[in-house]
Design a protein that fits this description.
Blueprint: H1 2-30, H2 34-55, H3 70-82, H4 85-97, H5 100-106
Helix pairs in contact: 1-3, 1-4, 2-4, 4-5
């Protein structure tokens, strides 16, 4: 469990730093506004949120145990749970308004 947590936190940190440095540039290149990205991020969170309310679990539960920590450390732990669409959108927004260095320090 400790190995999976370490991998998940490290991967989330890397994703957030990359998004702080290049997130807005990528969105601009793709022609996606910050508001559109935030709406899409919210829509991506809607199915797991509904499943969590309806079934008590954010994802389907299977009896098969993961064979290695990497099987569940990156998905679903690192993304979308730790560094999900909301965190990525907030990181890009903070980097644009507050500055990249301040955002990276905050991450």
């Amino acid at each position: 469990k400790l190995e999976a947590a370490t991998i998940a936190v490290a991967a989330s940190f890397v994703m957030l730093v990359i998004f702080a440095l290049a997130g807005q540039k990528v969105l601009d290149f793709l022609g996606i506004s910050s508001a559109s990205f935030q709406v899409a991020a919210g829509l991506l969170l809607l199915p797991p949120a509904y499943r969590l309310v309806a079934e008590g679990q954010p994802a389907s539960h299977t009896e098969e145990a993961p064979s290695s920590p990497l099987d569940f450390a990156l998905v679903p732990l690192a993304t979308p749970l730790i560094a999900g669409p909301g965190a990525l959108a907030a990181t890009a927004s903070f980097a644009q308004s507050l500055g990249q260095i301040e955002t990276i320090i905050a991450v």
